[in-house]
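GGDEF domain-containing protein
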Amino acid sequence: MENVHILAQRVSTRGDFLPFDTEQFVNTSADPIYKLVEQLQTTLHVDELLTVFAEHAQRIIKLSGLQFHSSLGVAQMYESDNQFTPYKFDLELNEEHLGQLVYYCQYQLSDSIRAKLCRLHSALLYPLRNALTYNRVLKLATKDALTGLNNRSQFTDNLAQRIERGRRLQSKFSLMLLDLDNFKQVNDVHGHSTGDDVLKRFSDILKLSVRSTDTVYRFGGDEFAIIIDDPEFTTNKVIAERIMHAVRTCHILSTYNVTTSIGFTLSNTQDCENSIFSRTDKGLYRAKADGRNCARTI
């Protein structure tokens, strides 16, 4: 895992930490850009950075939305309204391209407005790079290296959070466990490289079979889980049938006679992590006992 280097220097007169190349901002604490630099250093969450930055940018333009596009995806300010004209600015730091900042505004940006925004960007660069570095490392810690899915550690955290939210809001969700039938023989007969191809293809199927509100995880081996943000059994059945149909019609999986067995259950207000997992696991074993290539619930 790469190291996280937070780029900062000490300002001896205050004992504070400010980004490099911000000497132009430290002449007075009344300087609005100096205040912006201080506020931006309070978070490593890109959405929060954009929200703080947007409050200052709105003194220059009447923006409706603000996004940042990078290799990590798209982040945006809270309650961003992106229906108006986009105005794009590439952000670079020491010849490193960080990404693209996109303002949404119903009014055209003049050259003088653009120049003011570019000066404001100089306060954003180092806090933004720190946040991107932090989130890249965090992603490495919570993602499965082979498939790109969330890993078991992330599943444990997310399941506990979802159970707590269910208790607080009196809302239900579903848990689904899946594994691959006949997967061991793929590794034994055709080798682990082919097994990896099967796992990656199955992971793609799972990602395409769920909604944006659902989250897919790989535990390791051929074991997977999905947290489904829906209190209805019919949703589980639809997702399970969609997955099994995609597996049956997938060339690489059908070539090696690989199918999937699925267990699922609904949460209840008395659930803890162990109880809901155990109940779902029993559904998976029931699917195995009933001949595999099917979905069962407890």
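thats it. Residues 152-297 form a domain with the Alpha-Beta Plaits fold (CATH 3.30.70.270). Residues 210 and 239 are 7 Å apart (CA to CA). bye
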